[in-house]
Design a protein that fits this description.
alpha/beta; TIM Barrel; 8-stranded parallel beta barrel
Length: 273
């Protein structure tokens, strides 16, 4: 069974949402990932797709013209205190885009409270037909797959899932056997990239690589073949390869095309193309 492939927001971080849709189509992707809320408050500007209806119309028109669909939308950060009205506007926008998945990050050291808030967000997202996919990252309150799975299972929501990012899998205390053992219903999509091995394990270095120094699948030391084989057949693959230096030399379409070719090569080698 083939895996649908989506162009993640960060791979072409330097274009707007309309161009991202067109770039995805030109490079052969079936889906595209879009960002509506900033990754961190104050770290980047607000995204007009959340509040500007004209931008929403333009994106919807581009989706209709190209046949590309919206795979995942970023990013919900669950903190000790959350703006649920903002989250409601976010899910409304996701529904207007006919999106499928929401990337969720856990930034609350109180696991019980985080679990309650995660369940609440799942309930908010469900009427829009959205899954809520909790991404584990080594420097966060959800550092590995075990922690993410425990929260998702304790929340007990049908649309809850664990988001597996190849970089975070490799850098965390997570094994391929654990990924393969996850119930298929808990894996809605996965993110593909590669990274240098060995690597600096400090939080600062991990974050720098994650946000701007990733490699195309097959170019680094992560076991991408093993990861491809461990995922349920048919899982959507979101190709997330932000590389700030490369972006100064190669345009967005060129990078998106390189990311697609590298991902397809991994899937073929894993017998999943």
């Amino acid at each position: 069974m083939t895996h649908p492939i989506s162009l993640a927001f960060l791979t072409t971080f330097d274009v707007g949402p309309v161009e991202a849709v067109k770039t995805a189509a030109a490079a052969g992707y079936q889906m595209v990932g879009l960002r509506i809320l900033p990754a961190a408050p104050g770290a980047e500007p607000d995204y007009p797709l959340l509040s500007d209806d004209s931008v929403l119309r333009e994106v919807r028109a581009a989706l209709d013209d190209t046949g590309v669909t919206v795979g995942d939308v970023e990013i919900i950060r669950l903190k000790p205190e959350n703006d649920w009205d903002l989250f409601s506007r976010f899910t409304d926008r996701c529904a207007a885009l006919s999106a499928r998945h929401v990337l969720v990050a856990g930034d609350d050291p109180d696991t019980g409270r985080l679990t309650e808030n995660y369940a609440r967000f799942c309930q908010l997202a469900a009427p829009a037909g959205l899954t809520a996919d909790l991404e584990f990252m080594p420097w966060t309150a959800v550092p590995d797959l075990k922690a993410a799975q425990a929260i998702v299972e304790a929340a007990g929501q049908d649309n809850g899932g664990v988001l597996i990012d190849a970089l975070h899998f490799d850098r965390s205390d997570t094994t391929l056997n654990e990924i393969a053992a996850l119930p298929p219903a808990r894996i809605n999509y996965a993110q593909f990239c590669d990274g240098a091995v060995p690597y600096d394990p400090s939080d600062e270095a991990l974050i720098a690589v994650a946000r701007g120094e990733r490699l195309f699948p097959g170019e680094g030391g992560i076991d991408m073949l093993g990861l491809a084989k461990a995922l349920p057949e048919g899982t959507t693959i979101s190709v997330e390869v932000p590389h700030r230096k490369l972006a100064t030399k190669i345009d967005p379409l060129g990078r998106a095309s390189m990311a697609m070719a590298a991902t397809q090569a991994i899937l073929r080698a894993a017998g999943r193309a």
